[in-house]
Amino acid sequence: MKYFLFSISVVLLSACTSYYKTMQPIAVNTTCSDTIKPPGIASAWFSISVDVMGKHISGLLLIKEMPDQFTRIVFTNEVGVTFFDFEFDRNGKFAVKKIISQLDRKPVLETLRKDFYLLLGFPFQDEMQAWQHGDKLYFGVKEQSEQFYFTTSSGCTSLHSAEIGSARKRKVSVTFEGEDMRHPEQVRITHFTFDMTLELKRLNKDAD
After folding, report:
1. H/E element holding 176?
2. What is the CATH number of domain 2-202?
3. CA Rg, the chain, in Å?
4. What residue ranges in the chain does DSSP mark as E strands?
5. Whose CA is closest to 36, among 48, 45, 28, 44?
6. Phi and psi, residue 22, nearest 5°
7. Which of 17-31, 85-99, 132-146, 189-203 has the lowest mean pLDDT?
8. Which neighbouring-strand residues pair with 138?
9. Half-sphere exposure of residue 191, counting CA atoms within 13 Å on the CB side?
10. What is the tens place of the pLDDT at every residue in 119-144?
11. Do residues 198 and 115 make contact, with C-beta atoms less than 8 angstroms apart?
12. pTM higher than the cut 0.70
């Protein structure tokens, strides 16, 4: 366990290929963007597997929408030890309710904050821009030095992914499986600037 927790706090640099180089700005189709944008995740239990630089950890993840419109995200192991308990308010403001000392590092917290901020669709509450990238449409907003995107086909038929990128490279991708994006059967979060993936699978367990 201690080796895994050490690994998760190590950030590696990747190659500097310009993934977004060929993107072309286009007019925003608000009918498409409003229909396709990530709607957030309804209250649910998931099994979660995390792989970081060859190390593995698994457990249970609770995403819970609270009556005050806050959202809690709690990661525990199978015997009930809480690794972290995070909270987002309705506008995406982040708070740490509890975290084990091995994960209480600024780079780790910022990485996890962005992952769940993206997963819950908080970046896409603001006015967006749009781009064509190959056979995909990208909609996104800029926050500081990063761009938060979600993607669909040129026909705007379904949500393909949500992403975080810099001006030159893709950093994080979130993909969903299932017919209802509010209630996905599986979610995969992939990091491209260092070796880390998170896989979530919905459990038939009451989250209320």
Report:
1. strand 170-177
2. 2.50.20
3. 17
4. 24-26, 44-52, 55-65, 71-76, 82-88, 94-99, 129-133, 136-143, 146-153, 159-165, 170-177, 186-191, 196-202
5. 28
6. -90, 10
7. 17-31
8. 131, 151
9. 22
10. 999 999 989 999 998 889 999 999 98
11. yes
12. yes
**Which stretches of the chain are DSSP H helices?**
2-7, 30-36, 106-119
The tokens 């950030």 sit on which residue? 11
Q: In terms of residues, how long is the chain?
A: 208
CA distance 74 to 88: 12
Which tokens hold the place of 136? 């995909």
At residue 27, the 3 state secondary structure works out as coil
Burial grade of 33 (CB within 10 A; 0-12, 13-18, 19 or more)? buried
Strand partners, 76: 60, 82
Quickly count: other Cβ atoms within 10 Å of residue 82's Cβ: 14
DSSP summary character for residue 69: S
Q: CB neighbours of 25 closer than 8 A, spacing ≥ 6? A: 129, 130, 131
Measure CA 145 to chain center. Answer: 17
* pLDDT tens figures, 73-104: 999 998 989 999 999 999 999 999 999 998 89
Residue 16 phi/psi, 5-degree rounding, is -100, 35
Is 156 in contact with 35 (CB distance < 8 Å)? yes
CA distance between the termini of the chain: 30
Q: How far apart are CA 145 and CA 157, in angstroms?
A: 30
Q: What's the rounded Cα separation, in Å, for the pair 188 and 115?
A: 11
For the chain, the domains span 2-202
Three-state DSSP state, 126 = coil
